[in-house]
Amino acid sequence: MTRRQPEACRSMEELRVEIDRLDRELVRLLAERSRYIARAVALKSREGLPARIDERVEAVVVNVRREAERQGLDANLADKLWRAMMDEFIAYEEKRLHRK
Ligand SMILES: C=C(O[C@@H]1C=C(C(=O)O)C=C[C@H]1O)C(=O)O
């Protein structure tokens, strides 16, 4: 499928085709990320680690802010999105770690 650059979109209908394409891609990446989180539950259980490790959360945010700047995404937006996403993944880990 040919993708249209933002400047090449001549109507909202054309633009939304691209947004929907990107959302499918984002979902694919998040599903891949969530499979690593599911595996983290088993490894943390074995290694006696908690669901939330603040140093790692902050390190992820540092990485993501740097990458956002490099790729032209607002670093504060990336910071907020990643913290919200990690809160959800940590809640998922917590639920499963305490089930055992
Ligand atoms: C995956 C981990 O568990 C939590 C989830 C994180 C994430 O979604 O990236 C980061 C830090 C964690 O405390 C981890 O500790 O690396």
UniProtKB/TrEMBL annotation:
Pfam families per the UniProt record, alphabetical: CM_2 (PF01817)
Record has Isomerase as a keyword: yes
Keyword Nucleus carried by entry: no
Domain of life: Bacteria
SMART domains: CM_2 (SM00830)
GO molecular function, one term: chorismate mutase activity
One GO biological process term: chorismate metabolic process
EC number: 5.4.99.5
Alphabetical keyword list: Coiled coil, Isomerase
Residue stretches making up the Chorismate mutase domain: 6-97
Positions of transmembrane segments: none
Regions annotated as coiled coil: 12-39
InterPro entries named in the record: Chorismate_II_sf, Chorismate_mutase-related, CM_dom_sf, CM_II_prokaryot
Protein name: chorismate mutase
